[in-house]
Structures are given as structure tokens and as C-alpha cells.
Design goal:
The protein has 428 residues and is α/β, with parallel strands linked by helices. 43% of the residues lie in helices and 16% in strands. The chain is built from 17 helices and twelve strands. The longest helix has 21 residues. The protein is globular. It starts with a strand and ends with a helix.
């Protein structure tokens, strides 16, 4: 990303008007006229501007009417088209609109505009009128307060698309989980019952939380994470679970995520020990069937050790799928490294892939951060020297040194255990 996005300022007016005026013939039209856009800008309607080296290169503006907002224009300088700037501007504009308690966000295009496909990817739905794209942002009033009390939130619409690598796992989750929930009527015609609860298992750092967040983003459902440690702080973990699920039941649609679920659903010993987890596991087992009764609910549990979970917790009547999330293979590591190296041609991604065997996505992110920090510090140390004309940013050598400093989260022993768990437990 080579730009910064800020709220519209009065000093941006001339540059934004120029962008709107000069991009109208480039597939960036709108049903709103230039005069209406200027009126919205001067009346301080929500708008954001992207700048590169101090020069405005893109803008997005809206007008608010009650609980509905209309995206009036997204204008991108021709040299910056196709780089993800339109999506970035839309996300930032949506954040301002949500903060203003907008319930629906709409974008009306004069015909089959080039932005249409991008709007659908961003979570908008085409309505049967002109080319009318509308995005519903539910949960206002009491429901919004309830979601806030639960610590829940709506996640950016683009998260699923940003899941780099792990294509096999992503494709499986898309087919088994996302599509039946997103297309329930079509699924019903084929006798497919959308899942209500799934478990993701695998070594730490492999992206189980990222997948859970991505599913919520892809569906456009609010994301509520229940933290066992936070629930335990209320004193009675079983009662806290019961209370949380009772409040969640008031939400029309929701994805509930429980990480490290083995903390509250471990294998139960016999006989039950006073003050142990036996009662907590029993409580969760009783709560899941009630949760499953909702049509637009999904429980996603994640664990590093599926063999530590109580067998009754994992049976098909409670969990539809038990999906393994392993370390990325060569192709996945290449995709992840390409993301963090921004596709630079001077970086030897193949060398980084070979040097990072067994690295999880989290390990790769950490190594990339170390390399970026090294490049930043070198740039500071050399800022008074003559410009050598090199490419800014970390080099292949910086990344290799960072990889050498990192200790992989996953060991060969953990991989062996994971493969055994796939054979014994996976269900998809």
C-alpha cells in the first residue's frame, strides 16, 4: 500500500473535483452529478481522500439521509486503478458511515459500471432496479447495544479475500461452510443442511482465528468471540457461559468464536472432581443444541489439541465438521511471502519459501516484521548519505536473516501428532 487515506478537508476540494471530473469517462460514473458531489463536500457530508506523496489520487464521498447513506462517487486517478485503492477507500468511507449509525449503504450506478463486480465482492447486493447495489448494516438500537455488550462487531468485508495462501483449506471452508450459509434456499433444494457448528484444529499459529474472522466477514455477520479466561473472571464459568449464550440468542444472526476451546470442554474424568471442569463441559454440551436452532448462527471453535476435547463434545449432532488447519505448504508460503513482500520483483520468494519450512502464517508475519524493522533502521542510519538509488524496503538478505532469528512455532513432533489427529478426528 503506497497511499494514506484521511478525512476530506476543505483544502482538498479542488483536487477532488478534478478527480471526479476527469474520471467520469473511465468507468467511474455515478447517478449523482458533479454539482451534487460538490454540494455534499461543501456541506461536510462523509468523504475520504487518498494521497500519495501529498498528492490526492482518489476520493470517496457519500450523503446521509436518515439511516441510509448513498455512496455518491468513488474517483480514482487513472494511474492508480486496479491496485486495490477503490476497495480501501470504500472500507474507510463505510467506517465513517457506521460511526454515524447508518443502517443501509447504497450505491446506484447508471448502467453496468466497472465498479459493479467490486461492490458485490465488498458485500453489496444487487437489487432489481437499474444497477442498484445496497449493503445492509443491521443491529441498531437495542440489538446494537447487545452486540457491543458482548464485545462483538462487524468485521471489514474484505477479510476473506485477504486470507493469503492456505488455498486448500480456504476452498474447503468456502464449499462446506460459507456457501450453504450464504445460499440457504439453493442448498435446501439439494437437501444440504447449512452447518451450525464447526471446529478448526491444528498447530498454534496456523490461522484458525483468521479463518473464523474471514467467515464472519464473508457472510457479513457480526463476530462475537467468547474468551474462556474472561468468562472465568465472572466467578462461575458454567453460569457465565449460560448467560452469554442467552444474550447471543437475541441476535438475529451471528458467528460465535471460541478459541482454545479445550479450556472449557476437556476430556471429562470419572468420577467428576469437585470444582473441576466436568460441570462446565456439561453446560456447554447442553447449550450447543439450542444454539443450533437458529438459521443464521454459526459456532466456530478452535483448538490446538483436538485429542484433548471430550468425545461427546465433537460428535456429529453437535459439530457438523471438524476441519484441520495445518502449516502452509510451499505454494501457500509463496503466496504469504508475496503478500508481505508486496510482490516486489527484486525479492527471491522461492529462496524465502525454502528457508521457512514448517513456518506458520504467524511465523512468516513475524519474520517479515523483523526484516521490515531492519530495513527501517538501516534507512535511518543512512539518511544523511548520498542516495544510492536502491529499492526501498527489506531485501532478500534481510528476510533470510529474519527467518534465521525466528524459532518455528511448529516442530516435526507436532506435525506428526497433527497428521495422526487428522486420521482420528477430521470430518469434512
Amino acid at each position: 500500500m503506497n497511499w494514506l487515506i484521511h478525512d476530506y478537508r476543505e483544502s482538498d476540494l479542488a483536487a477532488v473535483v478534478h478527480l471526479i471530473d476527469t474520471t467520469a469517462e473511465l468507468g467511474q460514473e455515478s447517478v449523482f452529478s458533479l454539482a451534487e458531489c460538490i454540494g455534499a463536500l461543501t456541506s461536510r457530508q462523509p468523504a475520504v481522500v487518498a494521497v500519495h506523496q501529498g498528492v490526492p489520487i482518489g476520493a470517496a464521498l457519500a450523503c446521509v439521509a436518515g439511516e441510509r447513506a448513498w455512496v455518491m462517487r468513488i474517483a480514482i486517478a487513472s494511474a492508480w486503478r486496479g491496485r486495490g485503492l477503490a476497495s480501501a477507500l470504500l472500507v474507510e468511507l463505510e467506517r465513517r458511515l457506521l460511526a454515524a449509525r447508518v443502517g443501509r449503504i447504497a450505491y446506484v450506478l447508471p448502467e453496468e459500471d466497472l465498479f459493479g463486480e467490486g461492490l458485490i465482492n465488498a458485500g453489496y447486493t444487487r437489487r432489481p432496479a437499474v444497477a442498484y447495489f445496497e449493503k445492509v448494516e443491521p443491529l441498531h438500537g437495542p440489538a446494537a447495544n447487545l452486540l457491543e455488550d458482548l464485545g462483538g462487531r462487524f468485521l471489514p468485508a474484505a477479510l476473506w479475500g485477504k486470507v493469503a495462501g492456505m488455498e486448500a483449506e480456504k476452498d474447503l471452508i468456502e464449499r462446506r461452510v460459507v456457501l450453504p450459509l450464504a445460499e440457504p434456499e439453493r442448498a435446501a433444494r439439494h437437501g444440504v443442511r447449512p452447518p451450525r457448528a464447526i471446529a478448526l484444529f491444528g498447530p498454534p499459529g496456523t490461522g484458525k482465528t483468521t479463518f473464523a474472522r474471514g467467515i464472519a466477514s464473508r457472510l457479513g455477520w457480526p463476530f462475537v468471540e467468547l474468551l474462556p479466561s474472561r468468562l472465568a473472571d465472572e466467578g462461575n464459568l458454567a453460569a457465565a457461559l449460560r448467560s452469554a449464550f442467552a444474550r447471543i440468542a437475541e441476535l438475529e444472526r451471528v458467528l460465535v468464536f471460541i478459541d482454545e476451546v479445550e479450556e472449557i470442554a476437556p476430556v471429562r474424568g470419572e468420577p467428576a472432581q469437585p470444582g473441576g471442569m466436568h460441570g462446565v463441559t456439561n453446560e456447554l454440551l447442553k447449550l450447543i443444541p439450542g444454539f443450533r436452532e437458529g438459521d443464521e448462527r454459526l459456532l466456530v471453535c478452535a483448538t490446538n489439541s483436538i485429542r484433548s476435547l471430550d468425545p461427546a463434545f465433537l460428535r456429529p449432532g453437535r459439530f457438523d465438521y471438524l476441519i484441520p488447519i495445518g502449516t502452509p505448504d510451499k505454494e501457500a508460503r509463496a503466496a504469504i511471502w508475496s503478500r508481505y513482500t508486496h510482490g516486489r520483483a527484486d525479492i527471491d520468494v522461492a529462496v524465502l519459501v525454502a528457508a521457512s519450512d514448517l513456518f506458520t502464517p504467524a511465523d512468516i508475519e513475524h519474520a517479515a516484521r523483523i526484516a521490515a524493522q531492519a530495513a527501517f533502521e538501516r534507512d535511518l542510519a543512512e539518511r544523511d548519505l548520498p542516495d544510492q538509488g536502491g529499492v526501498p524496503g527489506a531485501s532478500t538478505e534481510d528476510y533470510l536473516e529474519a527467518i534465521a532469528q525466528c524459532r518455528p512455532t511448529v516442530t516435526p513432533a507436532l506435525i506428526e501428532q497433527f497428521h495422526a489427529d487428522i486420521t482420528a478426528h477430521a470430518r469434512f
